[in-house]
Automatic annotation (TrEMBL):
It catalyses: (9Z)-hexadecenoyl-[ACP] + malonyl-[ACP] + H(+) = 3-oxo-(11Z)-octadecenoyl-[ACP] + holo-[ACP] + CO2; a fatty acyl-[ACP] + malonyl-[ACP] + H(+) = a 3-oxoacyl-[ACP] + holo-[ACP] + CO2. This is 3-oxoacyl-[acyl-carrier-protein] synthase 2. SUPFAM superfamilies: Thiolase-like (SSF53901). Involved in the type II fatty acid elongation cycle. Catalyzes the elongation of a wide range of acyl-ACP by the addition of two carbons from malonyl-ACP to an acyl acceptor. Can efficiently catalyze the conversion of palmitoleoyl-ACP (cis-hexadec-9-enoyl-ACP) to cis-vaccenoyl-ACP (cis-octadec-11-enoyl-ACP), an essential step in the thermal regulation of fatty acid composition. InterPro entries: 3-oxoacyl-ACP_synth-2, Beta-ketoacyl_synthase, Ketoacyl_synth_AS, Ketoacyl_synth_C, Ketoacyl_synth_N, PKS_Beta-ketoAc_synthase_dom, Thiolase-like. It is an enzyme of class 2 (transferase). Belongs to the thiolase-like superfamily. Beta-ketoacyl-ACP synthases family. Pathway: Lipid metabolism; fatty acid biosynthesis. It comes from Candidatus Blautia merdavium. The active site is at C162. PANTHER family: 3-OXOACYL-[ACYL-CARRIER-PROTEIN] SYNTHASE, MITOCHONDRIAL, POLYKETIDE SYNTHASE-RELATED.
Amino acid sequence: MRRVVVTGMGAITPLGLNVEEFWNGLKEGRHGFGEITKFDTSDYKVHLAAEVKGFQGKDYMDFKAAKRMELFCQYAVAAAKEALEQSGIDMEQEDPFMVGCSIGSGIGSLQTVEREHKKLMEKGPSRVNPLMVPLMISNMAAGNVSIQFGLKGKSINVVTACASGTHCIGEAYRTIQFGDADVMVAGGAESCITPVGVAGFSALTALSNSTDPDRCSIPFDKERDGFVMGEGAGIVVLEELEHAKKRGATILAEVVGYGATSDAYHITSPIEDGSGAARCMENAVKEAGIALDDVMYINAHGTSTHHNDLFETRAIKKVFGDHAKEMKINSTKSMIGHLLGAAGAVEFIACVKEIENNYLHETVGYQVADEECDLDYVTGHGVETEVKYALSNSLGFGGHNASLLLKKYEG
């Protein structure tokens, strides 16, 4: 089985428009929450989100190309550009059919749906944009990144709701392991802070109704009342180890395990005993060939909903037993909210930076302990500690579970 390493990363997040800004925000314990500016929320119960600030698609691509992409695709292309530049990949020196793309989006473009449905109702079917479908469909993040950068290998879009980004990186990892590609550009992108997006999740009672930006996304806190919608993209360059070494690439981390399971239980709630997520984590660790006790850190899915945080805590205890009490667990969503299909990819990037810097960021906003969520969630401040392994979890509506295990690269 071929070894797979990370050689490039790119991020568009509510904390900044590149990986450095994102990481600095995490280290400083800043959050990206504020009043929704994309539409009038006067009639809504939910007023806060984690919006991307100051992004202009034309800063990252040709203006005409940007006009033919909705925001989630623009985010993906911008993050992919940063990741490829960091990796140093020269497509003129590569076999383009061995460089692939695996980028997910849980929803695609609700903006297109809203805009074109309004035209349909008010002006009739002849006025609907001919590009409505290619603007809307979720595979177009992968499609547009492939087109922009000439990636002719496997191009896929795994859609598993909030686990999409993690599954896309996992499937890219598998693709390289089995020799179907030497390089994969992988991750997730999402932009659904729209009237129907917020209304839909709000009607489901999944979103926080808090009006306090400092106490809205508070994973594992007893007063948590739902997640906060975020947006952005996280893209990484995965590469077969010998391929990376041959061209003198800087190796950021190694991917050593991938787990994927289904709860087969409920359309929105994780299974109550955490068994699906537990087996997922166990599979990722088993693939790496290490002991469960070797894993000291988990970047949790940690959405700030009652069920997720409780059942994920149970899952961690189920698989790690007494060792769970010794582990450090944090939630990046405490600062950037829930990026849906992009969440796992952005959190994967956070894990790589934590491994590089031997620093675990704080779960921001946590104040009130929950007796049922009784593990070490890195509260109050970040922690300087050696990070040899990082386990990243994503759990999606429909019961989709995905875990990726990263390791500090040691040659």
